Amino acid sequence: MLNSKICKFLKHNKIIYFDSGLKLIHKQMQGVRSVAIGVLVAVGSVSENEQNNGISHFIEHMMFKGTSKRSAFDIVCEIDGLGAQVNAYTSKQSTCYYTISVDEYAENCMEIMSDFLFNSTFDQVEMDKEKGVVLEEIAMSEDTPDDLCLENLASAYYKGSNLGYTILGNAQNIRNFKTADLKDYINSRYSAGNMVVSVVGNISEQKATELVSKYFDKNVFKGGYKMQKQSHTPKCDSVVTIKPLEQSNIAIAFPSLEFGSQNYMSLLALNSAFGGGMSSRLFQEVREKSGLAYNVYSYPSAYYGDGVFSIYLGTNPKTTEQALRSIKQEIIKLKNNGLGEDELARVKKQLKGNYALSQESSAALMRVYGRNALFLDEYFDFDQKIAEIDQITQDSVMEIINCIFDFDKVVTSYVGKEINFDPLKIIKD
After folding, report:
1. Model pTM?
2. Is 60 among the catalytic positions?
3. Residue 174 and residue 263 share a domain
């Protein structure tokens, strides 16, 4: 019999707290057969240092390479035999392991996840093979101009902050990792109070709670590590990487809102209008009307304690300066006039549609609910978000515009052929 004290009610939904410090977030979806189970850990590149940068992502890879009772082949065969999926991803502030299966195999998936999370052996032979995979991943990223441009942007923007560390890490670090390094890192970082299990789909709250209690709560690491907020004030900076490419790649970063900020919906409205899709100002003005770019877009990145608003431009070297000046002009228009009434109405409809469609995927909901519980200790309320969209005004968006587009804190990154102008100067001045 489960202790009722482990339940906390939030707006008719529950975050379930276990004595170990582990949290369960649950959402039952009737009318579907799937169950998505995610284990989110507040561990990523921000948890690292120069000597072990890349270890969070490398551990994510190694979790599937064998336990004390299953080989790597056994894990994938069992999952495939259930008609299920298993995967993982690492970000700057979190690592997520997840399965998606039909409801009748939810317990099987949870048992397998529990096994590789708590009983992985990190065999040196398997490690040496996986190092090659990750090193190739690093090489591919460095050979992909837009990825390199955006990675350089993040490193320059977050210079002096752990948020500047790459997720993939340093190649030499990867080569040096030993089994003991991985186990020590897990024991210190994968603590119960730093983890959330997110279960969404055709499964009852009682069943989800019983399974998490059985497979995770009793096995979870007891360390006391808790991720701290990351806050950073950028300084104007520019990084230029010269490569013999047929396309110029430019990225621009401005300060933005942290994860969970009260006015975040206004930020999303701004992004939708400015560079968040094919109907946005950047796409229509820079690409469609002027033909100055093949690819141009913007997006906000919200972290626990910090945020950044990024713009990316891929263009012909001959039109790079002109395209960059066009982006600057669109920023000036925003700062002077904000969003029009009809434009705001359109992007509000767009946001509502995106939120409505996202609720149809158990996997997407698992990630949304899990992240909210992990960093904010809150249940993600979709109805509340729709209400917040309705409350967006031209004034609230203008407040965000004035907050974000601070030319004294702008950072730029360039990857491409040698140029005779400074991208930072064009944007800043």
Report:
1. 0.93
2. yes
3. no
